[in-house]
């Protein structure tokens, strides 16, 4: 009875303090709302970047210009604490590629694009085998089928696949092809119209031993049909690429907390992009939303309890290089213990709710969301607690740090069809949706930084393991070599 009474008293004081904090959020949230709606510079800055700089490939001239552009924007907004966090990594850029297929009808060349971290030089001639969706179950039917062959696999999940099958990242499908002895892999896109997708085929961010390419949906289905009905096909893949050490820089700006300055909320998004287009959607809308969140809060001269740190990561596309470098540095200097949340904005557009990797964030996020709803009734506030991979939140999450950001987001099919493709341009950007990302994201960051109590704590190593298993992330982490829990 005494324990119950103490628990009730503790809950009452926490709840009472939280309600009082909620009331104090209203005027700040209203100012954020008005400032962003009237003066947001996110779209203008993104458009300027796409026109003046172009793509932002890590280690390239465009990448370096984008880093400086972001730094200069932070400075122009009055940030004193702006810095570059320099890191070295293995960079990659594409060279020449030829893909030719030979069958009963003769030889023909197929339009293709190299996937990142494919070899610097490759000249391969081998038989093509259809491995369906490229999942492990497809290989287990005949484990020797892919040995010495070139795998053909779909980037998505085919209609005839196991209904319980979960799709894998292109890099994980490539890793499986290598595991089962393939000499090359041809992945075909899920998007119609001959759109070619790029992206890394490496789970480690280092060169892979086999050539990996992407072709269009129609070409892939035609090859699949030929293999089924017309017999053997052979492919010739000849490619040259560049790989070598590069230097890149994360860009960091801070609003220092007044009561708990060591504790911080990291608000991040990756600045780098692939080289086929300008990266307006992936991840211009996220990176320039983060910059505008910073501009907004700095202009309003907010004084949150905790520090808010805005980070533009480089190297996300080539293996989360910048965020891994950030986390490794934080572990070395022990500031990892001070990060209370990491909010990640990667292709986040027009959020109508908040989400977190941890269900225990619900109370805080929904309370903040109710204050957002009071200002804008289109905000749904449907919190979702879930964990996923393959963006800059991942290194933080694997260290037990709660992660989150915008939920109930929307990108049209036309926009998603240009993901990592040569049609990813500024004309696809939804300006009102970008503005919503800025204003709701700024409110969430400030709300967390200002909260009198944050109940969600950093997870222990065993709790991280349980979270990964609960969210069915063990298989991809094992494939990538990031599963650190030995039996």
The share of residues in extended strands comes to: 15-25%
User: Spans with pLDDT under 50 lasting ≥5 residues?
Assistant: 1-20
Beta-strand segment tally: 14
User: Could you tell me how far the N terminus lies from the C terminus, measured between alpha carbons in angstroms?
Assistant: 41 Å
Helix content: 25-40%
Helix-strand pattern = HHHEEEEHEHEEHEEHEHEEHEHEHHHH
Radius of gyration: 24 Å
Largest sheet: 14 strands, mixed
Structural class: alpha/beta
Question: What does the average pLDDT come to?
Answer: 94
Shape: globular
Per DSSP, the total helix count is 14
General description of the model:
There is one protein chain. The chain has helices spanning 2-39, 42-52, 61-76, 136-140, 170-179, 217-229, 280-299, 321-332, 362-375, 394-397, 413-416, 431-450, 461-470, 474-480; strands at residues 82-103, 106-109, 112-114, 121-130, 150-154, 184-188, 212-215, 234-255, 260-270, 306-313, 339-344, 353-356, 384-385, 403-407. With 487 residues, the chain is α/β, with parallel strands linked by helices. Strands 1, 2, 3, 4, 5, 6, 7, 8, 9, 10, 11, 12, 13 and 14 form a 14-stranded mixed beta sheet that branches. A hairpin with a 2-residue loop joins strand 1 and strand 2. Helix 2 crosses helix 7 (280-299), helix 7 (280-299) crosses helix 12 and helix 9 crosses helix 12 (431-450).
